[in-house]
Amino acid sequence: MNINRSNKRMLTGNKAAAWGARLAGVEYVPAFPITPQTEIVETLSQWFAGGTLKGKFTNMDSEHSMFMAAGSAAATGVRVFTASSSQGILYGMESLYTVTGWRVPFVMVNVSRGLATPITLEADHNDVMSTRDCGLIQLHAETCQEILDFVLMGYKIAEHPLVSVPVLVNMDGFVLSFSREPVVIPDEKSARDFLPAFQPAQPVFQASLPMARASAVFGGGTYTYFRIQQDLAVRQAETVFNETAVEFADRFGRHYEPLERFHLDDAEVVFVMSNSFATKGKSAVLRLRKQGVKAGLLKIRMFRPFPDEAVANALKGRAKVAVIDQNLAPGMGGITYPEIVAAMYGRDDCPQKILSVIGGLGGKDIKENDFLSIVEKLNDPESKGPVFLYDEGDWKQFQQMQKIAQL
Amino acid sequence: MTTTAEHHKKIKDLHPQEGMAPGSPLCAGCGGLEGIRLALKELGDNVLVCNAAGCFTLLSVYPFTPFKGSWLYTTMAAPVPAAQGVRDALDIRRSHNRLANEDDFQVMVVAGDGSSADMGLSPTSAAIHRGLDFIYFCYDNEAYGNTGFQLSGTSPFGSATQTTPVTGEHPAGSEIRKKDLFEIWKAQNPPYIATVSPREPIDLSNKFARAKTMKGPRLFICLSPCPTGWGVDPKDSLLVAKLAVDTGIFPLKEYVDGQVIHNRIPRKRIPVEKYLEPQKRFHHLFVPKRQDDIIAKIQAGVDRYWERYE
Fold first, then answer.
1. Strand pairing class (A28-31; A212-213)
2. What is the pLDDT of residues A74-106, one digit of tens each?
3. With bands split at pLDDT 50, 70 and 90, how would you rate the model's confidence at A152?
4. CATH code of residue B205
5. Does the residue B67 lie in any domain?
6. Is the pLDDT score of A3 beyond 50?
7. For chain A, which end, N or C, has fewer CB atoms within 10 Å of the first or last residue's CB respectively?
8. Is residue B9 part of a domain?
9. Which residue of A26, A72, A98, A102 to mutate against B (max B Cβ within 10 Å)?
């Protein structure tokens, strides 16, 4: 039943995430507030309190507790959703590593925000990248529509018998979390047809089925066995994503691949980007094309499992590639850059130049000029990465601020 | 005042059933192990243990478990949140008609004193606040035992640990007092708190019998003589547990309906040094030179405690 004539509504990213969880029929939400995520759990709490969602919303005491409760509830056989951001991800990190190893399915949303120090609020991917090795499946959204769709698809992937691993859906704080965009909300019946009620693939806790889970192991051999199992499960998610995407497209008309190729077919200069700033990259590609530069963009939706074959196929034979990381590993550079380079390693058709670019830290805008300067750097045979998108104007602004404070 | 509802009067009244099998990698003479064994005899098999990192993590080493019920290893600080998730999920399944009555079970956190009094305390406080329906079994050996006996929040004044070594500058070893986990819980007014000793199986069993009829957060603090950390012969472990009660150092008590009830008030408390002297962790109070001032302080602490009840 739609109140509006169309099923398209203006939703913030946070509301889109909450709608995704609602359409998935989540039964349990352990929650803890953190900017810029809070609106998600507030919305869900209202839906549980008002009876729209059936189950339980539990106010937890920290993200460490919250992820643990999410995992243990999933291990007990209910469909779980939770959300966090930034410092909360770091605080909960031990629990994230723990519950991914339990091989239990649930979906969580991370609303990306820069990490302290300095403490800040706006989008930056160091938080989500910190979870890159913990065994989560990671889907990164560019638009509010993708957020809703990925949450729905996320359950299908997480709960697949060959996967049984939690899925993280990432969106950018502020840029998406608090921006309203038109979002098509699938009706409940279609959502339920696509994603039936939770049928756990693994045994769940109940008195008639006593079991020991997550027991200690001794000896690297036993440990390695379980780690390889985990690796296989996460890798399997790429195939399962693709199958799920086909079914999703059949029902809802929107088709997703692990990568999005924007004007890539004849592109000589390629920006590799993810999340909401990819929209800015696309706009720059169109502008550059008007200027006669054969530009294109490769957007990475799926960071885990890392679709290395698909990335290599998308970038093969390109002249110049700039990998724009909205994150920083101090002393090394962009976190995803080495993964892209590794995907190309040893190929004859490897791009002549793959440049690491760092931009958008702490939500800093990536302007059209920045893309032009990246193209200049790509054309400069002497240029080396990482290139920081921080120019004279930015420096002047900083000095001006210090001047006002009389520092 | 003593409690009246006694289910068991003699050892042979205890349940013949065992909730866990013998044989585990735990140390010989572990007081906590006897405590949890007795607890499970009373609670039965339908128990899921949420375990915090500590000595008892070694109870279930893949591919074995000694428990007839279920086991979930968590982290050092989050066994209680894990219990929350499990309990919530069971309640949800019940309300959605996806869990038969007989498939429900008791959720029990099993954690050491380090987890209970230090790292896991904030999530525990939150769970008491939420009224989580669970049993908390804390095996208290008064230090971080599994890592080789370092100071925890519950290490007593005057004890030597690996991180409070006895030196000329620090003749007492630990110079700070034990956290009172009983009182910390009591401040939040949960339905039930009890101290238990593996040397007092009837008292312990009656307390579990009482607690299992209740709902909400229920704490058991089990004094757990630790032969390796305390420096006693495994065969003397229960003797030390007995001395802890007879000296009045470890009061057997319960908190029910807002009242603290002492289950045994030692009429004639024996001097604390009888408890201290056999333990290597207190050896420095007697050898090479008797430190009467420190022993007197420990005695005074015990006397002050009991003055309120005598």
1. unpaired
2. 999 999 999 999 999 999 999 999 999 999 999
3. very high
4. 3.40.50.970
5. yes
6. no
7. N
8. no
9. A72
What pTM was computed for the model?
0.97
End position of a domain, from candidates A192, A217, A252? A252
Length in residues, chain A: 407
Distance in angstroms (rounded) separating the CA atoms of residues A75 and B11:
38
Pick A71's closest partner by Cβ from B85, B96, B99.
B85
B2 part of a folded domain: no
Say whether A65 sits in a helix, a strand or coil. Answer: helix
User: Residue B72: which domain range?
Assistant: 16-307
Q: For A323-363, how does the pLDDT look when each residue is reduced to its tens digit (9 = 90+)?
A: 999 999 999 999 999 999 999 999 999 999 999 999 999 99
In whole angstroms, give the CA distance from residue A45 to residue B45: 36
Q: What integer pLDDT is reported at residue A7 of this predicted model? A: 87
- As beta bridge partners, residue A84 has A110
Is A376 buried (19+), middle (13-18) or exposed (0-12) by CB count in 10 A? exposed
B101 touches chain A (CB under 8 A): no
The verdict on residue A166 lying in a domain is yes
Domain-embedded: residue B7 = no
| Mean per-residue pLDDT of chain A | 97
As a whole number, mean pLDDT of residues A277-290 equals: 98
Total domain count, chain B:
1
CB contact under 8 A, A207 and B92: no
Q: What is the 3-state secondary structure (H, E, C) of A311-353?
A: HHHHHCCCCEEEEEECCCECCCECCCHHHHHHHHCCCCCCCCE
Residue range of the domain that includes A346? 259-397
Please tell me if residue B61 touches chain A, with a CB cutoff of 8 Å. Answer: yes
Residue A145 in domain: yes
The whole-angstrom separation of Cα A372 and Cα A368 is: 7
Bridge partner residues of B255 (DSSP): B193, B260
Q: Rounded mean pLDDT of A228-232? A: 98
